[in-house]
Amino acid sequence: MARSSSSGSDKPASGDTGDVRRASTRSTGSVTLGDVAKLAGVSPITVSRVLNRPEMVTADTIEAVRRAIAETGYVPNLLAGGLASSRTKLIAAIIPTLGNAMFIDTIQPLNDCLSAAGYQLMLGLSGFPELCEEDLLKAILSRRPDAIVLTGVNHSAETRQCLLAAKIPVVETWDLTATPIDMLVGFSHEKVGAEVANYLFGKGYRRFAQVCAEDERAQIRRRSFEAALRDKGQSCLSTVCVPTPTTVRMGREGLAQLLAEGHRPEVVFCSSDVLAHGVLAEAQSRGLRVPDDMAVMGFADLDFAAYTFPSLSTVHVDRAAMGRHAGEVLLARLSGRPVDKKMVDIGFSIVARASA
Amino acid sequence: MARSSSSGSDKPASGDTGDVRRASTRSTGSVTLGDVAKLAGVSPITVSRVLNRPEMVTADTIEAVRRAIAETGYVPNLLAGGLASSRTKLIAAIIPTLGNAMFIDTIQPLNDCLSAAGYQLMLGLSGFPELCEEDLLKAILSRRPDAIVLTGVNHSAETRQCLLAAKIPVVETWDLTATPIDMLVGFSHEKVGAEVANYLFGKGYRRFAQVCAEDERAQIRRRSFEAALRDKGQSCLSTVCVPTPTTVRMGREGLAQLLAEGHRPEVVFCSSDVLAHGVLAEAQSRGLRVPDDMAVMGFADLDFAAYTFPSLSTVHVDRAAMGRHAGEVLLARLSGRPVDKKMVDIGFSIVARASA
DNA sequence: ATGAAAGCGCTAACAG
DNA sequence: CTGTTAGCGCTTTCAT
After folding, report:
1. A18-76: which CATH topology?
2. Which nucleotides of D are covered by protein (CB under 7 A)?
3. With contact defined as beta carbons under 8 Å apart, do A128 and A215 qualify?
4. Domain-by-domain residue ranges, chain B?
5. Chain B neighbours among A 94-133 (CB < 8 Å)?
6. Cis? peptide before A145, omega within 30° of 0
7. Which of A56, B173, B198, B201 has the fewest CB atoms lying closer than 10 Å?
8. Residue B93 in contact with partner chain A when CB distance is under 8 A
9. Does A278 lie at the interface with B, CB-CB under 8 angstroms?
10. Closest in B78, B248, B303 to A142, CB measured
11. Are strands B90-95 and B147-151 parallel, antiparallel or unpaired?
12. Distance from residue B166 (CA) to nucleotide C3 (C1'), in Å?
């Protein structure tokens, strides 16, 4: 079967044993470039070109090779290709968890953007404890991705070192810093906390409480919120902290705890819409009127919350734009195009709905 | 003339000067096994052993090598390793979308399980249209994963062909079939539809409606639900179908549409808790009492729904167990251990809460 | 436009 | 226990 198919007369194994397919010492059994080349009657490199740079090959050759590829069911080996070329078409992204729709909303457009350009996205889950981010990173770097997307800007010295040594484009997301490793697209959590404080103070609220995730960026918003209150001579009655990843249940329990401790806040600022959702559910089940008895402010503007509690006031963050933008700067860099803005603040906005 | 850049004579390397560290034509610059070996004063293969089979090496050697690794910041190249050994420590999983918490709940324990065993999970998103599953699969197979986890059991002939040709362990999940490709862990969507029909009929409901995702498995549940109703001489008033991935919003709109069409169902069976959540939100905003005016049945038993609408009746599916189990059978197979059950029905149960 | 030779960095298979 | 040799399958470089 595996003979030149060029012109008809296909003699059955005509004696000469010259190129009998000798099993090499450790063949993997799968079809290789060489097999396709033999079938198509060309050299391996030509098959490679058909796949990677078809403009260098004549239409006839392409046709013959395509046929051979289809006939053999050849699937390229990107381990070999990546090893030889130092380009893997692989891009890694590290996020804390799959359990948080916030990050997913960023990853999805990133993935779309990259796969449209022929890259594959590999996800790494750091789990919120930033403890072993370095190990994860090494595991990821050992696959030699062409670039990497990080969540957050607070990395250990070792992590930065690894990243620098890898000499690949890096995009940090979900935060801002004056000293990015490479490129950056995020927004200011400090500003969020401060502006929310201003907003709520401006609405006349004076008894504040929080339900806040034990997450680095959530804590930044929290502290900034408290600081801004202090500037106004106010303070936060109480803050309930809950472990990550957060759930609606924790929001419910958070409010339950605040009330059990005897607090009667006029408004509760939650570190995410998931928690705010839980707080609203709990308030509702207790017959509290929102915002008259108690107002609620969330963060992120998640769909499911907005469609369950349309009154939820929140902070809108364009997560999809963040993902898209991260993909775009990466692709620009990888294709040698100039990257206009290495640092981008995508901003945020307070969405005032009936709950606060 | 083009050759002018060549340093040194054209003559064949006449002679000797052999061991000058001649920069290889295309070095990638990063630290290699060889560099570590040189520093540690051992051979490359010994470094490899320290990393992969330390039990074959003396403690002293390990120590020396470890030091050299730390000193150089060496990060193994798994492209090269995988190419040489035909084992990549990479396992792929294909799911329809990241936007559905159902699948995430399966993937998370799968990931935990695999990474604890030193494997890395690579996610592939097929998007619900099973159209180009084959292209995605080829892109994934080109990274030579050691095994693959699929969502669903309905694959094209080409897909099955690719999978067979790859000769790697395969686990299909989220469904049952008499003819799995290899291993299987799922449950019967047919049974779900039928049992829900029985349950609701038994509770005395007679006017049924559905809000159902345009998803293969959801449609199986739907048809089975309708068939079971027919067996009882009943029928479904109306079914609103919504595109995937589904959202809470679609659930709201689904109920709105049912009511706008003039239907007054006694009970609405939704193809997921996300949709049921939306239906409940819409019902609530219209002042409908649940279950007195209208009952609601969901599917999957998602946390966020249960904690927002604790009364939501639903079908419980142990998604985490499915993921864990998939990981376990895979690891068993990969380590040569016998796999006790190649096909596992993890079952489901109807959770009767106050909403139905 | 196509091909030949030489690796990419690592590990399997054998020595010693 | 450690080293030597020979590839894994592909792409680069340089030649034709």
Report:
1. 434 Repressor (Amino-terminal Domain) (1.10.260)
2. 1-15
3. yes
4. 18-76, 87-187+320-347, 189-316
5. 97-99, 101, 104, 107-108, 111, 120, 122-123, 125
6. no
7. A56
8. no
9. yes
10. B78
11. parallel
12. 30
Q: Is the CB of A83 under 7 A from strand D?
A: yes
Fold matches, B87-187+320-347 and B189-316: yes
| Bridge partners (DSSP) listed for residue A121 | A91
SS3 state of residue A144? coil
Q: How far apart are CA B50 and CA A100, in angstroms?
A: 38
Residue type at B171 in one-letter notation: V
Q: Domain B87-187+320-347, CATH 3.40.50.2300 — does that match?
A: yes
Any atom of strand C under 7 A from CB of A57?
Answer: yes
pLDDT (tens place) for every residue of chain B, 356 residues total: 333 333 333 333 333 333 334 445 667 778 999 999 999 999 999 999 999 999 999 999 999 999 999 999 999 999 999 999 999 999 999 999 999 999 999 999 999 999 999 999 999 999 866 557 889 999 999 999 999 999 999 999 999 999 999 999 999 999 999 999 999 999 999 999 999 999 999 999 999 999 999 999 999 999 999 999 999 999 999 999 999 999 999 999 999 999 999 999 999 999 999 999 999 999 999 999 999 999 999 999 999 999 999 999 999 999 999 999 999 999 999 998 888 889 999 999 999 998 88
Q: Could you say which architecture CATH assigns to the domain A189-316? A: 3-Layer(aba) Sandwich (3.40)
Q: Which two tokens stand for residue B159?
A: 């897909």
Residues A107 and A95 sit within 8 Å (Cβ to Cβ): yes
Residue among A112, A121, A116 nearest A92 (CA): A121
Q: Considering CB atoms only, which of B79, B88, B98 is closest to A108?
A: B98
| A47-53: long-range contacts, CB 8 A cutoff, minimum separation 24 | A51/A76
Q: Which residues contact A81 (CB under 8 A, 6 or more apart)?
A: none
Give backbone dihedrals phi and psi of B334, rounded to 5 degrees, phi first: -70, -25
DSSP notation for B108-167: HHHHHHHHHTT-EEEEEE--S-GGGHHHHHHHHHTT--SEEEEESS---HHHHHHHHHHT
